[in-house]
Amino acid sequence: MERTGPPARITGLLAAFTAALLAAGGLAASAPSAAAADADLARNGNFEAGLDGWSCSGGSGAAVSTPVHGGTSALKATPAGSDYAKCSQTVTVKPGSTYTLSTWVQGSYVYLGAEGTGTTDVSTWTQSAGAWKQLTTTFKTGASTTSVSVYTHGWYGIPAYYADDLTLVGPGGDPVALPAVPAGLKVGTATASSVPLSWTASAGATGYNVYQGGTKVLSATGTSATVTGLAASTAYSFQVTATNSAGESAKSAAVPATTKTGGSGGGGGTDLPAHALVGYLHSSFANGSGYTRMADVPDSWDVIDLAFGEPTSVTSGDIRFSLCPVAECPNVESAAEFKAAIKAKQAAGKKVLISIGGQNGQVQLATTAARDTFVSSVSKIIDEYGLDGLDIDFEGHSLSLNTGDTDFRSPTTPVIGNLISAVKTLKAKYGDKFVLTMAPETFFVQLGYQYYGSGPWGGQDPRAGAYLPVIHALRDDLTLLHVQDYNSGSIMGLDNQYHSMGGADFHIAMTDMLLTGFPVAGDQTKVFPGLRPDQVSIGLPASTQAGNGHTSPAEVTKALNCLTKKTDCGSYATHGTWSGLRGLMTWSINWDRFNQWAFSKNFDAYFGG
Predict the structure, then answer these.
(1) d(CA 346, CA 354)
(2) pTM > 0.70
(3) Rounded-to-integer distance, Cα 410 and Cα 408, Å
(4) How wide is the angle at C-alpha 448 spanned by C-alphas 443 and 452, nearest 5°?
(5) Residue 589 and residue 355: Cα distance in Å, rounded?
């Protein structure tokens, strides 16, 4: 959030990928003749059985009847966002053997390749194929290689491609047996909304599926996983299976688990009203909206975020907060009056938090020393003013992901891990009543549906989706997430259409993503689980002066109707109806006062405040 007038958009997403970027391995102009005993090992390479035997990323593939190279069916795969429509299958091969991989393609920037060869993985591609064109490459397997993955894929921002009559010719390998049923399934320490599981590795397994009540809920490559998004004080049953190229094992014996009691969840603020209004109070600075004293904040506001606590330097972790200087804010109250007004608000059931960051307050906890300083300095502010908790409003370059940090469930970037650790320390210090809220921008959250960090090939903005690991790691401690649905570029929703700020449609699509969950960067094995509706509020500017993307009260009402009643939805189809949606957040209380309290009056009228 910006102090002085409408904030500018965060800088552009990423530079366009260069079409000249080649995949590893070279073209093979001619392939050696196959030995007499060689066979075509590809399963359903002509796609006459649909996608049987094939797996296409992000649901990008389909079998079509036209155009075809041979027979009556071919593959059509459509790139979307950062998903380049990779369709693959695993094939059993013999160690130390030579193979020829070939297919016919139509389209631009279409790739054919093989991975896991045990030697040099190969690929070949065509820049443009208006008519059917054959791609061919060869490879040799390593001394212990018994399976390889063959694939086709397109490229970012390029239309659909077609492939047909794919073959892999060479000596067949020994049949792969189904992996053993996983043993030793155990339940770790459950929270109010999650259950950690672990098990013993199964011979021959390359992956595992976790089942909740007989329904598959996630996949894992290792021997542990955490099931999230569960209800408090609820009994569940879990099983796990092992997978490899031959298929899936039978399910393990079921183990029971019961989540902890937690009211509406692990976060503090369970005594908030069912529908809450959150606002930022310009306490440390002045702008065109004017200074508003704490005692003058109307009772409509249930959560008051003090803007802002800021660091002494970007990397120090040392957070400071003080009231606006008299020179800037002639009507500022004394520190004693401010603290007394906070106590009065809390006596009336309101929550008052320190908000850290904002547009000017870049915070990078790159070291453990900065992390520890952050904890001690934030604690000092909370204690001095008797606050209820913390709002994380990290913007700009505070959070970004290091190259190679590709899984939001297990982040490796220090600024991410140190922030998570610091907040958990604060939560442990202040206990269950500690209120934790976050106000990220869409760039750091919903954009993660398309892009995450610097991406599989590098070159993307490393801040894309960078809040997701923080939200995920702290979801059991999180009271409210109110993403800033403003100062945003167009964002792709779960309907794979772009949505622009300023109307009900944007808030509906963005909030639906938070409540439904989504595959991060289109990877169906890395799904960000949806949050509980009581953890989610919609973030909006209070007036046209407060930020780009102001939404009229009528459009706000439409968004609330759609999300809580499934009416007034327009063309967007939500994935649920959430009458328990917590409410609205705005930047800011000051700007709402400047605008004759139009935002809060609309909230009160809708929810009967």
Answers:
(1) 14
(2) no
(3) 6
(4) 105
(5) 14
Strand order in the sheet with 195-200: 183-187, 195-200, 224-227
Neighbour count for residue 336 (Cβ, 10 Å): 8
Q: Can you tell me the distance from the alpha carbon of 388 to that of 169, in angstroms, rounded to the nearest whole number?
A: 67
Angle subtended at Cα 165 by Cα 164 and Cα 167, rounded to the nearest 5 degrees: 130
Rounded distance between C-alpha atoms, residue 365 and residue 598, angstroms? 38
CA–CA dist 106, 117 (Å, integer) = 26
- d(Cα 545, Cα 287) in Å, to the nearest integer? 11
Is there a contact between 293 and 333 (Cβ–Cβ < 8 Å)?
yes
Q: Are 547 and 592 in contact (CB under 8 A)?
A: no
pLDDT 10s digits, 416-451: 999 999 999 999 999 999 999 999 999 999 999 999
CB 513 within 8 A of CB 536: no
Packed helices 598-607 and 553-565: angle between N→C axes, nearest 10 degrees: 30
Half-sphere exposure of 407 (CA within 13 A, CB side): 8
pLDDT at residue number 244: 83
Name which of 357, 343, 347 is nearest 386 in CA terms. Answer: 343
Measure Cα distances from 78 to 87, 401, 448 in Å. Answer: 10, 27, 19
> Is 347 buried (19+), middle (13-18) or exposed (0-12) by CB count in 10 A?
exposed
- Active site amino acids: 395
User: Is pLDDT of 495 > 60?
Assistant: yes
The set of residues, in sequence order, having a beta carbon less than 8 Å from that of 174 and lying 6+ positions away, is 92, 94, 146
Residue pair 531/595 in contact (Cβ under 8 Å)? The answer is no
